[in-house]
Amino acid sequence: MRSVSDDFPVSTVLGYPRIGPDRELKRALEAYWDGRAGRDHLERVGRQLRADTWQRLAELGLEGLPSNTFSFYDQVLDTAVLVDAVPDRYRECADPYFAMARGADGVAPLRMTKWFDTNYHYLVPEIGPKTRFRAVADKPLAELREARELGHETRPVLVGPVTFLRLAQAAPGSPDGFTPVDRLDDLLDVYVRLLSVLAGEGVGWVQLDEPILVTDGGSPAVRHAYRRLAGHPRRPKLLVASYFGDIADALPALAVTSVEAVALDLTHGVPEGVELLRGRTVVAGVVSGREVWRTDLDRARSLMAAAGATRVSSSCSLLHVPYSLRGEDILPGRLAFAEEKVAEIVALAELGPKATPVAAVTGAGSRRGSDTGVQERSAYAVRAAAQRDLNLPVLPVTTIGSFPQTAEVRAARQAFAAGRSSREEYESLIEREIGRAVALQERLGIDVLVHGEPERNDMVQYFAEHLDGFAVTRNGWVQSYGSRCTRPPILHGDVRRPAPITVRWATYAQSLTGRPVKGMLTGPVTIVAWSFVRADLPLRDVTMQVADAVREEVRDLEAAGIRVIQVDEPALRELLPLRKGDQDEYLAWAVAAYRRATGGAGDSTQIHTHLCYSNAAEVLAAIDALDADVTSIESARSGTGVPGFGRGLGPGVYDIHSPRIPGQAEITARLQRALRNIPAERLWVNPDCGLKTRTYEQVEEALTNVVAAAGAVRASTEDPGDR
């Protein structure tokens, strides 16, 4: 066994934000996609962002700088390109990389889903028995050389081979029983080649990210993979990094390999069996890469000592937090964003482990809460009968909530927030935009309308701005996928709703039409999941506080005459613990929180919910237990169906995350497939998600096809005697 490698830097991070402090990459990407700028401009922005990141990390005193953490879209997509696992249908596209990410004419994009239990989305590789792997080291080599030209020696970061294959899906046409992990040995051939190329460049260390180690069942493949990779004579030293949880079960698998260093996420405590890593460098992830609270340096030093670590890092990539507190004036003295976390890491490296590691192995504590006091609604059949007077057709068409956020709307919101326009001027514009959305839906023949949400900046931030207990940043942007960024609110105190939030706009929209308009709310689990949450209460208790606020809003909407209310929970699957043994407890209280929020609604009020890009089939029993009258899910990109669902279901027929417009025939085929599993009287027709990121021209063309397809399928399901 190799000894501890003293040459590993004493301070490092596993990754860093890449969208740009002022979202420079977002603007460059969208300019390239829209044809307003060429590829050379996009590449130039990328080079500058990488240079600025390395320079800033060096200025902050960080010793170990990572490279190959930058991406134009997603690091898993980059890995697919790195090993040439590009499906044939994309190879002839003008830009295969972005065709996989966003689709191209006649070609749908790869499926997209959540990265473990975060709100970051990755693109799911397709691996089959005939996938041809080949080492394409252009990107890591180019970034390595860029950094060297700027005077920085870096550590290339790659998604590990086991994680890559475990996150992939079987390519279309793969035989029954095939799984991508069956191709591990073939992929290891490529990784051996990549490591050899990097060794030839004089690279001292390579980081291989294996977060799959915090889930169930990855250990045998990891043992096999790293015995082979670490046993190869021509390679750099290896840092195997895992994060998002405890890897105690995987420690024996790593211990029998010759990897020189292991990075552990210690924010929840030191894993049992850490002593198996003696003789290797342990890199202590004691500064959270997912939270924004200042680090308790004493506890961090105790964790270092208990793990036998003298090297300090972030617990995971800092991709999941904003860049810097510069320009923010909220919660003084309590917060740390990416730059401040780097300063904490540097300080901890200077201080070193605590001499007496008191209570260092204790985790974050139980997240159990008190009894939820769920109020039950009547049975679904009773509610369905009470809702018949909504007079909806078979296969009713609706949308998920938002309509395009135009430049005019965004500019008006910014002007109002800056005091450059009056409330009357701003609200008048919002009313006009609602009128535009309602008129378009009526003209297209949508059955259940939405008001379009022009007043909302984000489905969580908007509610946070109207609830006590939240703070909102000015520039705390975090990448969600591609060019999409959010500003997660900071939930720091007890949550209360001082006044109604959505009633005015929902009732205004309803006054413009005789068709039902949905009241649009974000559910308690999603509000909590997409916020940075206080650490002094169990997560369950915090979620119940939010559920009470949502419950009050449901009651006020209902009292105002809104008969259809959608309470979205796209993050229900996201917060699911990564180990199966911990999942039932979470699902029980998450479902209870949703039913607490919606349980006060009357039988004649139709409750909808929505889940997107969240592997809904994995938590089908919990979705059923939410007891919503109608559930809409992402389906167009993934092809997911949900057989046997006992309530109304809307499997998405239009992938809104791609600019590609589906044709009527394509949508018709999707609806016909759905009817194999869902009775027509319970099937709804809707896009995958909200339409905020699309243009009105795209939306009108796509929804025209959606309505036409629904009409055609509706006609084919009608009993001729009913005509």
Description:
With 723 residues, the protein is of the alpha/beta class. The protein has two domains: 247 residues, Alpha-Beta Barrel (TIM Barrel); 338 residues, TIM Barrel, CATH 3.20.20.210. It has 23 helices and 21 strands. It has a seven-stranded parallel beta sheet. A five-stranded parallel beta sheet has the order 16-18-19-20-21. It has a three-stranded mixed beta sheet with strand order 12-15-17.
Q: Which helices and strands occur, and which strands form pairs?
A:
Layout (H helix, E strand, L loop, with lengths): L23 H10 L5 H21 L5 E3 L7 H8 L5 H4 L4 H7 L9 E3 L6 E3 L2 E2 L10 H12 L4 E6 L1 H7 L1 E2 L13 H17 L4 E5 L9 H12 L6 E5 L9 H5 L5 E5 L15 E7 L9 H11 L3 E4 L23 H14 L28 H7 L20 H11 L5 H22 L16 H4 L3 E4 L6 E4 L2 E3 L3 E7 L6 H9 L6 E5 L1 H6 L2 E2 L5 H21 L4 E5 L14 H16 L7 E6 L8 H6 L4 E4 L14 E4 L12 H11 L21 H22 L6
Parallel strand pairs: 1-5, 4-6, 5-7, 7-8, 8-9, 9-10, 10-11, 15-17, 16-18, 18-19, 19-20, 20-21
Antiparallel strand pairs: 2-3, 12-15, 13-14
